[in-house]
């Protein structure tokens, strides 16, 4: 079924707002941009709604923040596709970057597929919030069990090696004192913590500033892109040149 959805299918002409409304209505989410779905969690739950019980929701991380966590979600999704014999390869490396066009295209495909299975009707017996909550609890329990085992193993190793570490530390300290004749002054832990805390705060402010700047320029570029796609101007020579600039990075990566 998936292999029959070509690039010229009407699915790929569904707008961003319709896609967001579809996700938010069915999963009771509040996405405002398609790139918010880059973690792959929403796609996993959409398949869970379409095929109840097939997706191991306890493996789906809705709090994913890093590309590594995103990839784990897409692994779950690809396993579900394979299990259902859905002939669709997920371009994980492109999706996890949060690029709007890549994520929009994949969500357009997903909507077309889900609608072809359930006729576009919502599963009234499916509670998306409860499924996310239950999955999160199961993941937390399993994660805590793993952490407990790891902690026990770590404590065992640390207890057996602590005496040796202390001996090595004393030898190193004695060697330094022997060479310099001066006992090094102890570092004040509170001052070091304050310095590190200030450094972290500065980095956070810097990141927030960069993210705001990125979002500002993205919205401007998106407005230009929408304008260039208007039938009234899309064949204008100037607009054609602007589109070449907009998609230059995509073409280089494809090449």
Automatic annotation (TrEMBL):
Q: Report the residue ranges that make up the EB1 C-terminal domain in this protein.
A: 185-255
Please name the Pfam families in this protein's record. CH (PF00307), EB1 (PF03271)
Task: Select a single GO molecular function from the record's annotations and give it.
Answer: microtubule binding
Q: Does the keyword Cell division apply?
A: yes
* Keyword line: Cell cycle, Cell division, Cytoplasm, Cytoskeleton, Microtubule, Mitosis
- GO biological process terms, semicolon-separated: cell division; thigmotropism
**Bias category Basic and acidic residues: which stretches?**
128-141
Indicate yes or no for the key word Zinc. Answer: no
One GO CC annotation: spindle
Under the heading InterPro entries, the entry gives: CH_dom (IPR001715), CH_dom_sf (IPR036872), EB1_C (IPR004953), EB1_C_sf (IPR036133), MAPRE (IPR027328)
Q: Could you tell me which SUPFAM superfamilies the record lists for this protein? A: Calponin-homology domain, CH-domain (SSF47576), EB1 dimerisation domain-like (SSF140612)
Region (Disordered) residue ranges read: 124-163
Main localisation, per the record?
A: cytoplasm
Location in the cell: Cytoplasm, Cytoskeleton, Phragmoplast; Cytoplasm, Cytoskeleton, Spindle
The residue ranges of the Calponin-homology (CH) domain are 13-115
Family in the record: Belongs to the MAPRE family.
> What is the name of this protein?
Microtubule-associated protein RP/EB family member 1B
Q: Which organism is it from?
A: Sesamum angustifolium
């Amino acid at each position: 079924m998936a292999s029959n959805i070509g690039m010229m299918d009407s699915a790929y002409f569904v707008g961003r707002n319709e896609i967001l409304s579809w996700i938010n209505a069915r999963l009771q989410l509040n996405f405002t941009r398609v790139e918010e779905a880059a973690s792959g969690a929403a796609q996993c739950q959409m398949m869970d709604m379409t095929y109840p019980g097939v997706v191991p929701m306890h493996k789906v991380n809705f709090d994913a923040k890093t590309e590594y966590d995103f990839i784990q979600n897409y692994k779950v999704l690809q396993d579900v596709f394979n299990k259902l014999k859905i002939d669709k390869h997920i371009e994980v490396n492109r999706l996890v970057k949060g690029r709007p066009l890549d994520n929009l295209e994949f969500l357009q495909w997903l909507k077309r597929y889900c609608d072809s299975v359930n006729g576009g009707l919502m599963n009234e017996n499916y509670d998306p919030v409860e499924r996310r909550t239950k999955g999160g609890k199961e993941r937390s329990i399993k994660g805590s069990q793993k952490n407990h085992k790891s902690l026990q193993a770590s404590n065992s190793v640390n207890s057996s090696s602590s005496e040796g570490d202390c001996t090595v530390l004393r030898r190193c300290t004695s060697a330094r004192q022997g060479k310099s004749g001066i006992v090094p002054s102890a570092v004040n832990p509170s001052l070091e913590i304050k310095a590190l805390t200030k450094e972290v705060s500065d980095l956070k402010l810097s990141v927030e500033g960069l993210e705001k700047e990125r979002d500002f320029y993205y919205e401007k570029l998106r407005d230009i892109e929408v304008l260039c796609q208007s039938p009234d101007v899309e064949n204008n020579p100037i607009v054609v040149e602007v589109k070449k600039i907009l998609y230059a990075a995509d073409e280089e990566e494809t090449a």
